[in-house]
Amino acid sequence: MGKLTATGGVSQLEGAGGGGLVPWALITGYGTRDSWGANAHATRVRTQDYGLDTWGVAAGVADRVELSLARQRFTGARAPLDRLQIEQDIVGVKLRVAGDAVYAQDNWLPQIAVGALAKRNRGIGGLGALGVTSVTQLGAQSEHGVDWYVAATKIDLEHSLLWNATVRATKANQMGILGFGGDKGGSYRAQLELSGAWLVNRKLALGAEYRMKPANLGVDPEHDYADVFVAWFPSKVFSVTAAYAQLGQITVFNPTRQRGWYLSAQAGF
Amino acid sequence: MKNTACALLLALALPAFADGAPLYDDLGARAGVHAIVTTLVPLVLQDRRIAASFDGIDMKHLALRLEEQFCAVSGGPCTYKGKDMKTIHDGLNITNAQFNALVEDLQEALDRNAVAPAVQNRLLAKLAPMQRDVVTK
Questions:
Q1: Predicted confidence (pLDDT) per residue in B83-137, tens digit
Q2: ipTM score here?
Q3: Which of A47, A91, A173, B65 could pair with A178 in a Cys bridge, judged by C-beta atoms 3.0 to 4.6 Å apart?
Q4: Cβ contact A160–B118 (<8 Å)
Q5: Do B97 and A244 touch (CB under 8 A)?
């Protein structure tokens, strides 16, 4: 519990320490360089036609290494996809390689971390009538994929701001929920992800995020994600993040641009 | 919505900060800094995480040095007359958690003296780099 409140960030959609959509360079939890921390989280996103639930656990060791495990469950809410269910497992590892987001207030060098998110799509449920049980049947090249990223995070105490920029190399369609690679492309693409937050006080942060995504799959006219969020840290053992997110169009069969609420809770030390 | 997020990100990037008064004045100048340190010292001595580190320390002297230091780093008309942070903390094996405990006590003292969060953070920005010299474990 040695870190200052909120300086471990929250849990992003793929289970890594970060904001809501973007993995940050901060190491999750409240462990300092001679200790460790861990937490569990649950996140619920609801748009007009779909839902996404994520839950997982993560640990930060010596404020240097972060390990995370997460399960995502994507569901359809409207016929004919009201029984749709796609699950994905994600194992994450992050290594802080340079800088210090909190203490290096006398220079501009951000904290920098490199990370990987290894993902395994567990298949599609609820489309049995169509004979569809795997994302590869939708055109994805693979049910597995690894995202690689470099994240830079800076807390600017002089102006009570937090900044993050992440570059991610990925083949994932909708984070991997629709598999990896596709008929329109199958190679790694670099995507930029940005976060900014105003640290209103020690317990409250307001911010926004933007996450670019590739479009490899013909049936998935994938759009970039964006959100505006408020994160509340009533204590070091618990935080809750609420956001309004725009996730864009998910399939060509449903032209509605998906938007809705995001709610996440994290408990740990 | 996406535009809103982008606009917010941009707004955060603009250096539109009302950076008027020097930090020292925002802290309440001499009287303010004195009140903050006067609140801080008993908080530190009651803090079980770090109180033992101050055994045998002349707290009156420490309070004076802290006032000088806060005044000097915030742009006030003072010169810090104490030893440098590295020399003072050399060999004390202070952990990062202990350093942060003191920061939290300071934040509590600033709260009790009604110092606005943004002003608190500006003071912490000046003190935070001392972590490199203070934390040796």
A1: 999 999 999 999 999 999 999 999 999 999 999 999 999 999 999 999 999 999 8
A2: 0.93
A3: A173
A4: yes
A5: no
A59, A37 contact by CB (below 8 A): yes
Q: Tell me the pLDDT tens digit for each residue of B7-46.
A: 666 666 554 445 567 999 999 999 999 999 999 999 999 9
Q: What's this model's pTM, rounded to 2 decimal places?
A: 0.93
- Chain A residues with CB inside 8 Å of B101's CB? 2
Give mean pLDDT, residues A131-136.
96
On the 0-12 / 13-18 / 19+ scale of CB atoms within 10 A, B77 is exposed
Using CA of residue A53, residue A170, residue A31, residue A226, what is the dihedral sign?
A: negative
Strands A258-268 and A36-47: antiparallel
Nearest-Cα residue of chain B relative to residue A206: B8
- Chain A CB within 8 Å of residue B16 CB: no
Nearest CA-CA distance, residue B123 and chain A, Å: 8
> Can you tell me whether residue B95 is helix, strand or coil?
coil
Q: What percentage of chain A exceeds 90 in pLDDT? A: 97
What pairs with residue A148 in β-bridges?
Answer: A116, A169
- Tokens 């938007």 label which residue? A259
CB-based contact A218:A174 (threshold 8 Å): no
3-state SS class at A44: strand
Query: Does residue B42 sit in helix, strand or coil?
Result: helix
Q: Which residues, listed in sequence order, are joined to residue A240 by a DSSP beta bridge?
A: A232, A265
CB contact under 8 A, B96 and A106: no
Q: What is the pLDDT of residue A31?
A: 97
- Asked if residue B5 has pLDDT above 70, the reply is no
Nearest to B120 by CA among B70, B47, B50, B60: B70
Q: Quick check: A259 and B1 CB within 8 A?
A: yes
- Alpha-carbon distance of A203 to A184, in angstroms, equals 44
Count residue pairs from A and B with Cβ separation < 8 A: 95
Q: How far lies B71's CA from each of A247, B5, B26, B30, B107, in Å? A: 49, 39, 11, 7, 16
**How many CB atoms within 10 Å of residue A2?**
21
Q: How many residues does chain A have?
A: 269
